[in-house]
Write a structure and sequence with these properties.
It holds the Pfam family Molybdopterin. It comes from Dietzia psychralcaliphila. The chain is α/β, with parallel strands linked by helices. It is built from 23 helices and 30 strands. Helix content is 30%, strand content 18%. The chain starts with 11 loop residues before the first strand and ends with a strand. The structure holds ligand MGD (2 copies), iron/sulfur cluster (SF4) and molybdenum atom.
Amino acid sequence: MVHALPTTGSPTHTHCPYCALQCAMSVTPSPGDGPATITPEQFPTNRGGLCRKGWTSAVLLDHPDRITTPLIRVDGHLQPTDWDTALTRVTDGILRAQASGGPDAVAVFGGGGLTNEKAYTLGKFTRLALGSRLVDYNGRWCMSSAAAGANRSFGLDRGMPFPVTDLDDARAVLLIGANPADTMPPFVQHLDTAAAAGGMVVADPRLSATAHRAVDGGGIHLRLRPGTDSALALGLLHVAVVGGHLDTEYVSTRTSGFDDAWAIAADWMPDRTERVTGVSADQLERTVELLSSSRDAGSGAYILTARGAEQHSRGTDTVGAVIALALALGLPGRPGTGYGTLTGQGNGQGGREHGQKADQLPGYRMITDPAARAHVASVWGVEPEEIPGPGLSAFELLDALGEPGGPTAMLIHASNPVVSAPDADRITARLRSLDTLVVADFVLSETAELADVVLPVPQWAEEEGTLTNLEGRVLRRRRSVTPPDGARDELWIWNELARRLGRGPERFPTDPRVVFDELARASAGGKADYSAMDWDRLDAGEALFWPCGADSPAGTPRMFLDSFATGDGRARFAVAAVDPPAEDTCPDYPLLGTTGRVLAHYQSGAQTRRVPELASAEPEMWVQVHPVVARAVGLDDGGRARVVSRRGAVEALVRCDEDMRTDTLFLPFHFAGAARANLVTLPELDPYSRMPQFKACAVRLEAA
Ligand SMILES: Nc1nc2c(c(=O)[nH]1)N[C@H]1C(S)=C(S)[C@@H](COP(=O)(O)OP(=O)(O)OC[C@H]3O[C@@H](n4cnc5c(=O)[nH]c(N)nc54)[C@H](O)[C@@H]3O)O[C@H]1N2
Ligand SMILES: Nc1nc2c(c(=O)[nH]1)N[C@H]1C(S)=C(S)[C@@H](COP(=O)(O)OP(=O)(O)OC[C@H]3O[C@@H](n4cnc5c(=O)[nH]c(N)nc54)[C@H](O)[C@@H]3O)O[C@H]1N2
Ligand code: SF4
Ligand SMILES: [Mo]
């Protein structure tokens, strides 16, 4: 029995540990030995709603699988030990690696679930205490293409540049590759007006729960072939222009590059778009008509993307094409209309701002920018030359482990790449080849199982910090129960490692409030400026959206109303020619496999597979296929199948679905071992964002 002891018997106001909607809830410790109670709270994003992951989030706090003492590998087995022995093993591993391989022999991998304070300190620790340039994180396979696309077109990346409540009155919303009915259920209430007006349009190869909702309300499901979102967006842009829906005034005063975009979109006639995407000319026209008529009536029009459109080897260009459509319709940077992306992880927004990304410094600054280096160096009290240059992106970093000249030691904080990395077997082998693998977690994830040292950390309800939600709103995470005796906070761990390495522990404060003050100063003048925020304002529940700096001390709920963050203040049409698919189908691999999420599980499943209610809702891996496709290989509903790609094979139970395309199958990625969807995925990387192609690879279905 682990003791998640109450600090007080009264409810503490905090937010859900899981996704970026960051639903508000209170946690009330049980007066006895039982689990804490979760109560949903009124908050603009969730309005008293929670999904079943949120409702059951306290179960993990005193779960028997909780790690409550450090573990080290002895004779091939992980064994409990004390903190001194564990951290000695970590520092010995770091020193050994760097003695033979130099500073970059040690690499660090972070996560978008870390608080802002931890994400900031992780990047600083890597650069200053380890002197390594090699830090990147799992957000690379989450938000990087959306971020690169928004940076290119708007000059800035805040996932939703407006509060979610702005969607409430909109009568037309186009969602491309987003399934919030499963991935952030309380969010869909913001789409109720659009759904009821028949103005909800969902582009997804599957009739997802979200697409269902659209169709039920009289809206549209664009059942496109996976990986053809660029063609779809350009086809819609074509229809908008030819149909006379271009907002010429907006395009000429607020944007640049339309002519180049049109030079490409002009060729995406409806019949060609239909041939490539499978979406009919009639549906293209109705979609544009819905958006433009609602815009013209002043009834709101929004376009939103998520991972279905973005997790491709041309994801940045796809985002560019979707933003181009939004610009042609005159939506971004105006009240009542807009474009945004649905950020995924709990701190997926803040996690990409404070410097745990290979090419980035705090404040969403580029590490190659001399002015950024000088500013951050002054806050850190070092010379700019002491800050290493850019490192490697997540997949490239993991793929270099143990290779000649690659890192021989790695620290992982808040990710489970054995399950979640593309081409997972290859990455698992790389992790195994390390001399020293250190994993900080609160459960023994599949990645922690491979570690030489496992460091137990507190969970969400046991820590203080801040997170930035999908709207760019900064929130307080509050401690409501005490962590188990053996767990140590990561801020403490990095401070202690810096002390043991003799590299200035005073530079790594352990109090999150002190770290927040520092990260706010480091962010001053950057794109993601937090400098006018402080802990007390956040604690008082002020709604603070970044940028919140000297010029905008009240924060910025809505961005780009006057100008975009580009040099000339205009949004850029950034449209590229549509590339052929990264891996096309062929006689040996005749189907396109795509991957994604189910309501009951979160990410690699390390947390939710341990929650009985969630595990019984979704106990086992499955593959969703059209019955005709299943029958062609002798399979039926419930049959045992193997899905095989050029990388490997995954075992799954067949789920027949008449609404599936006959060229596509879908795999959830939350399961472990031989049931990992990522055994088949393709690690082809986007040239700009380095996002892997999680959402389309050539596969075949076989009876197991
Ligand atoms: N229940 C649950 N909720 C979550 C998470 C979770 O793991 N579980 N994770 C959180 C995180 S980190 C993230 S990033 C978000 C992700 O949130 P979403 O992006 O909504 O989730 P996905 O299921 O990855 O993908 C969305 C949809 O894309 C479709 N799709 C697949 N391929 C394509 C394609 O080529 N084009 C198009 N247009 N659509 C395609 C899939 O069928 C799927 O329905 O969810 C967050 N919320
Ligand atoms: N095939 C396929 N693969 C995908 C995706 C897909 O759609 N398809 N989606 C991708 C996306 S969008 C994402 S975001 C990734 C996510 O994949 P992962 O990076 O594997 O994410 P999680 O499963 O959330 O892993 C977080 C781990 O950290 C632990 N943890 C949680 N909070 C903390 C903390 O504060 N500190 C520490 N030290 N540990 C903590 C949890 O227990 C868990 O073991 O997966 C990617 N992989
Ligand atoms: S929608 Fe996201 S934040 Fe809200 S309860 Fe579910 S997992 Fe938690
Ligand atoms: Mo994500």
